[in-house]
Amino acid sequence: MKYKINFILNNENVEHEVEANRTLLKVLREDFDLTGAKEGCGLGECGACTILVDGRPVNACMMLGIEADGKEILTIEGLSNGTKLDELQLSFVNNGALQCGYCTPGMIMSAKGLLKENATPTEDEVKEAISGNLCRCTGYKKIVEAIMEVVENNK
Amino acid sequence: MKNFEYFKPSTLKEASELLIKKGANAHILNGGTDLIIRMKEGITSPDVVVDIKGIKELHNIKFDEKEGLFVGACVVLNDMAHNQIVKEKYKVLSNAAKSVGSGQIRNKATMTGNICNASPLADTSTPLLALDAKVLVYGPNGEREIPINELFVWVRKVSLEHGEIVKGVRIPAYENIIGDFQKISRRKEVDLSTVASTVVKINDEIRIALASVAPTPIRARKAESFIKGKKLTDEVIEEAAKIAASEASPIEDVRASKEYRIEMIKIAVKRNLNAVRS
Q1: Distant-in-sequence, close-in-space partners of B197: CB < 8 Å, separation ≥ 6
Q2: CA of A103, closest CA in chain B: separation in Å?
């Protein structure tokens, strides 16, 4: 059986039909071709599937698609404005804050969630905010630097 | 994940009736950070899922000088941990909530979910045990309150009947809580407790609660009565930590051996008692 849901996806109203047993991550990737959010562990430990739900970071692998009904969902694809990158995306590029890139969308969405709540976090707060995101290339230093550069630019 | 029927009722009555009508293989969905993983892994395969997040009153968090603090079943851990009253009056609960999972998990997971899973290592269970919290339950035969220590029956077993729904948790109002939460885990963030403990000092009474050391979270009552009437000297703390460890019956698992856990209980309780002594 399919259920009808309505939600805001990357700033646009969408109406969609989902089976109850599909995670939001699957729905985003398979039905909407939004493959920025990744399935790493599928258990809420790696953060590669991080998206914003009503402005707050959530693991899309631990949320049912049907739970998106009535919510505002933002994925990495919704961050840029056309070809104009978001300040965090730009800073990750400029600081070389990625190697394989697998964790990058999740890292950026966690950072985005933090900056929405607190535009001027300390370095420790940044580290805490991305502590639910694993990078296996161990590029944490540059990732933190990239986020801090955005923080400094906004001061 | 096996397919299931999904319902999102807007009242407790409707939710409870659905659970009863659909039978034993109907499951409550709250934050889902535990249930969805169990469904993916096929450990839990409900035919019917009843999402309780559509019930407005379960999203309340409120404080009253007489009644104390009420945290609704659907209040997510981050909202509870950062609530001004919780931070001021129940700091130890806020600290325990902040130690659960990651920021992403705390934006979905709830304290009620944490305790209803009845995992022996539930992080929020120790402050609730130490503060004598009550679990408010709605059921087909009316409402009832379960003292938190009577909620936990065994590993993943709680004293709730099918059709009963936890409305939230109430923590009594205390004039002044001096409390300390300790979590010993392999890594600081996004890890399960190897041992967790809370000590609170209310007036001159010391209460000690431990998790991940027995089939359910427990109060260390013998250690509490040993301390009663004594000044918290180094020697008393040392002995109380030993007694607390003797009250536990930990298992060996992927996170630690039994022996290591017993040593860590002593460390955690000593840190707790030192933090509240002055």
Answers
A1: B126, B181, B182, B208, B209, B210, B211, B244, B265, B268, B269, B272
A2: 15
CATH numeric code, B5-54:
3.30.43.10
Closest-CA distance, A107 to chain B, in angstroms, reads: 11
Q: At A91, which CATH number?
A: 1.10.150.120
Taking one residue from A and the other from B, the number of pairs with CB-CB distance under 8 angstroms is 83
Chosen CATH of B185-276 out of 3.40.50.970, 3.30.390.50, 3.30.70.330, 3.40.225.10: 3.30.390.50
B49, B53, B107 ranked by CB distance to A57: nearest: B107
Run means of pLDDT, 10 residues per run, chain B, 278 residues? 97 97 95 96 97 98 97 98 97 97 97 95 96 98 96 96 97 97 90 94 96 95 97 97 95 90 96 94
Interface test with chain A among B2, B47, B102, by most A beta carbons within 10 Å: B102
Domain residue extents for chain B: 5-54, 57-171, 185-276
pTM to 2 decimals? 0.96
Q: H-helix or E-strand containing B211?
A: strand B205-211
- CA B85 to chain A, closest CA, distance in angstroms equals 19
This model of the complex carries an ipTM of 0.96
pLDDT above 70 covers a percentage of chain A that reads: 100
CATH dotted code for B57-171 = 3.30.465.10
Domain span at A46: 2-78
Q: What is the pLDDT of residues A18-40, one digit of tens each?
A: 999 999 999 999 999 999 999 99
The answer to whether the beta carbons of residues A139 and A81 sit under 8 Å apart is: no
Residue B191: predicted pLDDT: 87
Cβ-contact B263, B242 below 8 angstroms = no
